Amino acid sequence: MITSAPYQFSELAQFHVHRLQFMNEQSELTQALPAFATDETLLELYRLMCFTRSGDEKAVNLQRTGQCGTYPASTGQEAISTGIGHAMADSDVFCPYYRDQGTLLQRGVRWEDIYTYWGGDEAGNLIPEAVNTHDFPVSVPIASQFQYAAGIAFAMAYRGESNAVVATGGEGSTSEGDFHEALNLAGTHQLPLVVVINNNQWAISVPRDSQTSSQTIAQKGIAAGVDCLQVDGNDVIAVREAVALALEKARSKGGPTLIEALSYRLCDHTTADDFSRYADEAHLKAAKEHEPIARMRRYLTEHHQWNDDKENALLSDLNSHVQEAAQTYLNRSKPKIDDMFNHMYAHLPKELEEQRELAKEGY
Amino acid sequence: MITSAPYQFSELAQFHVHRLQFMNEQSELTQALPAFATDETLLELYRLMCFTRSGDEKAVNLQRTGQCGTYPASTGQEAISTGIGHAMADSDVFCPYYRDQGTLLQRGVRWEDIYTYWGGDEAGNLIPEAVNTHDFPVSVPIASQFQYAAGIAFAMAYRGESNAVVATGGEGSTSEGDFHEALNLAGTHQLPLVVVINNNQWAISVPRDSQTSSQTIAQKGIAAGVDCLQVDGNDVIAVREAVALALEKARSKGGPTLIEALSYRLCDHTTADDFSRYADEAHLKAAKEHEPIARMRRYLTEHHQWNDDKENALLSDLNSHVQEAAQTYLNRSKPKIDDMFNHMYAHLPKELEEQRELAKEGY
Amino acid sequence: MTAITLIQAINQAMAYALKHDPDTLVFGEDVGHNGGVFRATDTLQERFGKERVVDTPLAESMIAGMAIGMASYGLKPIAEFQFMGFIYPAFNQIVSHAARLRNRTRGRLHCPLVFRAPYGGGIHAPEHHSESTEALFAHIPGLRVVIPSTPARAYGLLLAAWQDPDPVLFLEPKRIYRALKQEVPDDGKALPLDKAFLVREGKDLTLISWGACMQETLQAAQSLSQQGVESDVIDLASISPIDMETILNSVTKTGRCMIVHEAARQGGVGADIAARLAEEALCYLRAPVVRVTGYDTTMPYMALEKQYMPSVQRILKHAQTVMEFA
Amino acid sequence: MTAITLIQAINQAMAYALKHDPDTLVFGEDVGHNGGVFRATDTLQERFGKERVVDTPLAESMIAGMAIGMASYGLKPIAEFQFMGFIYPAFNQIVSHAARLRNRTRGRLHCPLVFRAPYGGGIHAPEHHSESTEALFAHIPGLRVVIPSTPARAYGLLLAAWQDPDPVLFLEPKRIYRALKQEVPDDGKALPLDKAFLVREGKDLTLISWGACMQETLQAAQSLSQQGVESDVIDLASISPIDMETILNSVTKTGRCMIVHEAARQGGVGADIAARLAEEALCYLRAPVVRVTGYDTTMPYMALEKQYMPSVQRILKHAQTVMEFA
Ligand SMILES: Cc1ncc(C[n+]2csc(CCOP(=O)(O)OP(=O)(O)O)c2C)c(N)n1
Ligand SMILES: Cc1ncc(C[n+]2csc(CCOP(=O)(O)OP(=O)(O)O)c2C)c(N)n1
Ligand SMILES: [Mg+2]
Ligand SMILES: [Mg+2]
């Protein structure tokens, strides 16, 4: 530290980074549950996490059988996306990255939409049942989503609305400049923006320690003067409550928040990846014991008479839902050459009209 | 604050931002001077600051009389660039922005080079008397310099050298993603990089508070896990010592440092700007009383028998030096059309050779 | 009505937009109290308030992303990049999002925004302040690129860009910001976005240009006329899409075509036009299609910028070759 | 010697560079232990150490800047962008610094670096993973752009890029990473950087292409041959600068020329070639210069990518027009 030099340094500012948890890896409550966490809600959160995992599994299966493209599952991280989705109001806007299935499902995106998208058809982004038609599709270029999310938050503030934007990314995304620029805008204009970082400790094969030397990801908010917090990302209650607190603050003009949700990726980065090439076996084993679904199941079993029968019934219900979605996806008509042109512009320029006709004729 | 919610939050990390000063705005020492600050050195630093101001004035004058292009003076901020230059060793590499004349003069860049550059001729970047031929020219695209500076630091570390890189920018540059990405790389690989931010409280017409809501600029290092410090940027002793400490740390594998040097721009942003359109008169007046040259002059007068005669002798000496440099610049032969082509590639492609010939024939 | 300059026309168009649409915002670096480094947004903050004319932090990718988010949410952002040479940090946002959002969502979300940036050389500015890289954006499907060359066209095209439901990059030839004056009624009338302007008629030669180079091109046309060579002069204006109809109508008549632009030749927009002629008008061409352009070098600093940019003399020298070709 | 694929040849070239020059470093996202998402850097970290084959944080502008700094300081960086669609955050560093440093300092500093990126469609990848925007870089003076189309050319051109004292963007046609095998001796021999390859000879037609499209182009040439039309086929390879000599030699002979590329037509590199022909070979052209390219739309997601990319059939359809033109 430069301040270890033998001079008098005056202190200008002090920052503290905190962590929130309600239920630990042994499924014990570490503090009283927040008000939202009724029996019913906990069961619902559990169901949503399982639904996410089922749908992910189906997607991987579709890909492995040549019926879908590259797919990013969220195995082990379902608490994060589920908690986010549950905390959001319909009037809030969601700017997802590609590992947010648990949120999407609560935003009116159906598994068939998700499969259509990753199956290689832009129509998967139409989201006919969207709870908010302003919700963005997945952002593939890492970290770029934070910028337009801040733009939407700016628009909300300009219009005096009392809603907010949630944008997500992985811990790898915090190395991109876009992340910092967007937080800085949000801080400067005290925008209603909540950024949630899914710290699954890997960016494809790059471990978190090769990504950044910051002690926490949460502290990256300090650079922009943005309030920050780490939550146990395997504790869906903590994620749900932290996002809700941040959204409330945002809606009441309290400004933006950066939330780091600490978890661990328990699957390949995508179906195009092979985790076993670089996995840290010891870490992986430890991480498996912290994973969110088992944690909640244990809690429900101990406190809410959850049992194998109920579990099997739930899984078979979710499974048949997912199968049906897959079938709907597979039955969809494939896009046609026109579709390439039709949505390039509101008014297709004459030049492109001509090209479309030629394309249809095979030129 | 999100942590004002009625839950238990555990503390993960704590950060403190400190400030260093040796001489206050009344020219009083606020603590014992560091070892380097002999009478001789203080006089030398004073001379260098005055030299910077003289040369800047001449440049503005050349521009006003149509003999030079747009020019960014550093009036009021001479302590920063002077302190940096004095702290650097020849073997260190400097990656400047455009308001670092006080450093450049100590890196072997002559006023005639500076005038040639801002006069619109790339030859100004040749720097025949450079103390280190790896020093970069001015970076015009804001914040881009931090990235290649980190690259040079990476190269030094790779080679096991014991030198370091200093890169500079304005506080506006800290809003650009490049700034954060470079710091993050430096943190992750503990690179020998010192970033000094000249916080002159304006980015052209945009005041510091519209630039960011962070309490200090220094704290932006926390995001990258990079050690940080604010110095009184009008106290050349503090700047000199802070940069020296950071360089020492960097050379001994202690990693990067971010230094915020807090000062105030006392001139137009560049000759193309009109400060009076947006100046905050009260601030400006207050700032003038803190400026570094008067502060040091007062100190030297009180403690080192500085007086008007010595002052006049110094200024007239500097002035004649600067006049001579200007004359050398004005006498330089202008670049020719060949110069546009000759340095595009080490081996000019045939295509471009042909173009060069055509260009010379007026095509 | 007093005659106004090109930059005043731009200011007038933005004021019109701000006045008639509460969803319109103007933002960028120094566009607020300072009125922009060229004064394009002069007095706008004073007249329309700090909420609607906003100084942003210094980050171009952010400015672009901000505009995209706003536009997707129903606002009409007009964002300024201070110089075209500083648009590159925003390249990813523009190319990956602004240009693609409509298609990506099959029309669900779109980006009715305007990105403004002064471009081009000739004002004795420092490095990176004189770029002309419109071709980079013309290669990006989903984006419109527009360049005005007179005050009236600046006003009408900026309003058109503002009204258009898709993203438009509006590049302003800063060399002629104050070079010409015209009476430009503040009537809110937009010009068509994807049309070129035939600004002079002649049967012997087609000259195509845009932006500041229209000055040299028109002067060359006048000189040629004195030598008995009458030119069609086309102000391309819409750089993407390209109005090939207007161009083909002219070139099939004249059989000779020159394209004048300030950008480097290789990969410049002139290449597209010449390529289209080689494909669609080959039999009409009575002489090689010649491009008079910047050289394939970096735009030099100001000491050499004049030598880089197409001059009237250079155009005339090439015209001689074209006209003498048989 | 066993035959190797294009990606193995790239790996072999990097291994050669690492082995023979301690100043060479390879870095990028996932290039280390994982060996790159396509395995281009497979085993390199194991063989040459973590200091020389480095996983970087996830930031492309940083990767580019890192390379520039290293290169200016005397190292020989080979930096990978994971996909061409993610190069845009680095655009500013590449355009404003890598391409300009030598000229900016009149030769004092320079940038002997290689930027590698897989590009192009056809591997059923998600959005942004299938781009072909080489033209954006071909418009930037000071940068070389190179695209190999066979294992041997990949090896020889990558070594040439590595040896070159200037920045080279080396784009890898990922669709054919594993499609062809060739024996490629690991002899460290570089191919010339600014030469096109005439890979098939014929008197009737000139076909110009590069990268993965060379496959379809060669197949089309074969079909045409069966119909009695003999083609010169040129692998452009050096996208910038363009080897016009080889092209002109061929087209002045055949009088007919088609250019095939995957990128969008407007602003594509094909435009440059056609424009040069319209200027320098007009009198030799016996038919319109036709470009068979991607459409002027966003590269579609995988369900439509096949329809977007030039197919053998599309090339043949256009060839018929060109050959029948009289
Ligand atoms: C700008 C950009 N660069 C590179 C990639 C390729 N890529 C896709 S995912 C990924 C890793 C992301 O890691 P992280 O942000 O931690 O998210 P995670 O996948 O772990 O959830 C990379 C490098 C990309 N999509 N966008
Ligand atoms: C990428 C980029 N964007 C915009 C500009 C135009 N510009 C030049 S200086 C400046 C303000 C810089 O402010 P700051 O970083 O605080 O440095 P200062 O000039 O105050 O020393 C701007 C916006 C630029 N040079 N580069
Ligand atoms: Mg991750
Ligand atoms: Mg400043």
What does this structure look like?
The complex is a heterotetramer, with 2 copies of chain A (about 375 residues) and 2 copies of chain C (about 325 residues). Chain A is of the alpha/beta class and about 375 residues long. Chain A contains 13 helices and 8 strands. In chain A, strand 5 and strand 6 (about 205) form a beta hairpin. The longest helix of chain A is centred in the N-terminal third of the chain and has 26 residues, at about 40-65. Chain C is of the alpha/beta class and about 325 residues long. The mean pLDDT of chain C is about 100. In chain C, the strands form 3 sheets. In chain C, strands 3-2-4-5-7-6-12 form a 7-stranded mixed β-sheet, with helices on both faces. A 5-stranded mixed β-sheet of chain C has the order 9-11-10-13-14, sandwiched between helices. Chain C has 12 helices and 14 strands. In chain C, helix 8 crosses helix 12. The chains are: A alpha/beta (about 375), C alpha/beta (about 325). Chains in contact: A-B, A-C, A-D, B-C, B-D, C-D. At the A-B interface, strand 1, helix 6, strand 7 and helix 8 of A face strand 1, helix 6, strand 7 and helix 8 of B. Bound molecules: thiamine diphosphate (2 copies) and magnesium ion (MG) (2 copies).
